[in-house]
Each structure stands twice: as structure tokens, then as C-alpha cells.
Amino acid sequence: MAVVYKQSFKQSETDNVELSIFNCGHQYCEPGYTWGPGIRDHYLIHLVTAGKGIYKTGGSEFTLQAGDLFLARPNQLILYSADQETPWEYHWVGFNGACATKLVQQLPFTETSPIHHCRDTAAALEALNNIFLSRGPDPACEARMVGYLYLFIAGLMQEASELEPRAANSSSQYALNAIKYIQFNFSHDISIDDIARSVGVSRSHLYRVFMSNVGQSPIDYLTSYRISEACYLLKNSQLSIAEIAVSVGFFDQFYFSRVFKKAKGVPPSRYLASIEQESREAAKP
Fold first, then answer.
1. How many whole angstroms separate alpha carbon 197 and alpha carbon 202?
2. Taking the domains of the chain in order of start, what are their residue ranges?
3. Alpha-carbon distance 106 to 184, whole Å?
4. How many angstroms separate the CA atoms of 47 and 64, rounded?
5. How far apart are the first and last CA of the chain?
6. What is the CATH number of domain 170-281?
7. Given phi > 0 = left and psi -120 to 50 = alpha, else beta, which region is 21?
8. In terms of CATH architecture, what is 5-163?
9. Residues 6+ away with beta carbon under 8 Å from 252
């Protein structure tokens, strides 16, 4: 009789724009347990630690066993199913963010081969366990989870480089340098031309680099980052909305309110009111 067990965590709200964990967990599957066919809105990596199963995507079918990893990409039709005789056990992490595509491009997966046999299963499993053990609603919990995710990804990057040494992708490096510039300077009155000059490319080339590596334009990334920082300040500071606007690089409060409402569906004042209401409800006995 197979042991059936599932323990999972789903992040309901994330503040980390660059890399955010959507979910993680550990499951002993029942015989024939199947998910799909369907799609996810984020990247999802499973590590098989026991048993067997199949993974189907892109018209191909892969048989996996202990030590194998499989990757699902956002909006990619997938199906995975546990073996009827020896159903698998796996750990997983789902994530996305501005840096996610760039990081995944450096992992040992390709469009035609979304699987990889892990060379250091113990280290990968430890990182996934640590992600799950760090779960929680606080910003500190999310930071720890993302930290362990980076360690998990770094280990797979190392395995990818050992399998096929290759020169650094200059396109992804331009994107990474631009993201760093934005993170260090978002509170200033910077333009896309400033960002392009900082990494040594033209404005049009920066746009192409961002679209291929980040999946959005530089101005959309800059705006998203500023709004994310504004949300953090609304939750965790006593600054006024006008002060928060200036602190994240908007020097016109009314323009800030319009951009914020477009991104979050409500103006900053209502967003703040909802936070205060949640705090009052949580404080009730």
C-alpha cells in the first residue's frame, strides 16, 4: 500500500519583484496521481526523490525516477503522472519574477529537454527543504525562502556549466546590469536613456534585451519596481503618500496615484486603508 502524503505552501502575496516564490512542497503521490493537462503562470521545478512517473510537454513524454528534475515553464501545456506500481515522491518549488527567465536560461534544461538528472541530489533536496521550512507570511520569511531558492538555482547553474561550458550570455548580462542600476537608482529621476547609458547600449537594444531576458520593457520593469517599493513603504512605514511617492522616484503625487491605481487596481489611499483595516481585524480578540 503506497504512502500518500502532501505538504505544501502557497504564497498569497509577494513583495520581491526580481524573484518571488509562488509555492513549494513535498508529496508522496498515490498510484497514477496526475496533474494536467494544464498550464502554470510561473516556473515550476520538481525533484523526484523516490519512485517513478512520466512528464509530458511539447509533444514529448519523459520517464523519470529518483534524482531527476523536470521543469515547467509559464503558460506551457504540461501533464505529469505517478507510476501505477511505484508512484513517485517529489519536492517542488514554483517561482517567477523579473530575473526568473534570465536565471532559468542558465539551468541545465532546454525547450526540447526539460529534464535533468541531478548530480548532487542531496544538496538540491536540502535547498528545497530549506525553502519549505522558511515559509511564512512575513517579509523576512520570503527573503529567506528566496535566498534558499538562489542557492538551489546556483547549484543547478554549476551543474549546467560542468555539462556544457559556455561563454557568458552578453544579452543576459546587459539585462542584469540594467536591473542592478534600476535597483540602486529607482528613487532618483532616472530615464530609460540613463539606464541604457549605464550599461553601454542603445535605448532600442536595451528594449530588445529586456524583452528577451525579462519578458517586459525597461519602463514597465522600472515602474513595477517602484510600485513594489511603494507597497512596502505603505505597509511598513509612517510616511505620507506624498513622501512615499518621492521616495520611490515619483515627484508628482497625482501621477504616482494614477500609476499606482493602474498597477494595483486601487489608489494608494485605498490600498493603505485596506492594510489598516486588516491590521484592526487581526488585532481583535
1. 7
2. 5-163, 170-281
3. 24
4. 10
5. 45
6. 1.10.10.60
7. beta
8. Sandwich (2.60)
9. 245
Least Cα distance to 57 among 29, 83, 38, 84 occurs for 38
Global pTM? 0.63
Q: Which helix (H) or strand (E) holds 80?
A: strand 78-82
Q: Which of 24, 9, 8, 17 is nearest to 221 (CA)?
A: 17
Task: Kindly tell me the burial class for residue 94, based on how many C-beta atoms sit within 10 Å of its own C-beta (0-12, 13-18, 19 or more).
Answer: buried
Smallest CA-to-CA distance from 82 within 12, 30, 143, 11 is with 30
Q: 15: closest CA among 236, 259, 252?
A: 236
Phi and psi at 212, nearest 5°, equal -80, -30
The answer to whether the beta carbons of residues 47 and 99 sit under 8 Å apart is no
Instruction: Return the sign of the alpha-carbon dihedral for residues 10, 12, 13, 17.
Output: positive
> What is the tens place of the pLDDT at every residue in 105-138?
889 998 889 999 999 999 999 999 999 999 987 8
